Amino acid sequence: MSVSQINIDVFRMINNLGNQSSFLNPIAIFFAEYMLYILALGMVIYWFTRTKQNRMMIIQAVIAFILAEIAGKISGLFYSHHQPFADLPNVNQLIDHAIDNSFPSDHTILFFSICFSIWLVRKKEGWLWLIIACFVGISRILVGVHYPIDIVFGALFGITSAILSYWMTPKLTFLKNLLHAYEKVEDFFLPAKYKSHSKDKYKNF
């Protein structure tokens, strides 16, 4: 399907920033390609704080990402277009990318579903994660691999799924049971320094 002229104009405005200010290019490449590793490290750190709040938050984030990806794949069946560098001349393309359906942005889905899930639970540093998600979305335009509409819908899918998961996940008893079983095994092999002796450990989740 064709891309609207407004979408192209906004893409050009953002993508041309790299031509006008070349110092932005390595920053955009870092956010577009490598911030994923920072996100993964953050999730691991949250998980191994070994608090029930952080662990349920990570579970909610993973479920939110799965839901958002499903929504994204379904939407891609009804609307599709190639990456800007494949359709437009003189694109400031800074990273390699296969030519396929660019709508919606998987990177944006990933970051917004997880970062918004963190924000819902941990507002204080959650704002920083949301800012990072926004920068990642913009960077995907700046490096030439997505149109603005890909980013906007990726963010919408991620945020909506995060809210749904935040509401739904604590109601799923089998997840609490799985987490409890996992922690029993974990405590056997890697005993926590301080163990909670509360019988109602998961009553609030």
From TrEMBL:
Q: Which domain of life is it from?
A: Bacteria
> Keyword Transmembrane helix on this protein?
yes
Give every Phosphatidic acid phosphatase type 2/haloperoxidase domain span. 58-166
Sorted alphabetically, which InterPro entries does this protein's record hold? PAP2/HPO, PAP2/HPO_sf, UPP_Pase
TM region positions: 27-49, 61-82, 102-120, 127-145, 151-169
Q: Which UniProt keywords apply?
A: Membrane, Transmembrane, Transmembrane helix
Extract one GO molecular function annotation from the record.
undecaprenyl-diphosphatase activity
The record's section on SUPFAM superfamilies has: Acid phosphatase/Vanadium-dependent haloperoxidase
Gene Ontology cellular-component terms for this entry are: plasma membrane
Is Signal tagged as a keyword?
no
What is the official name of this protein in its record?
Undecaprenyl-diphosphatase
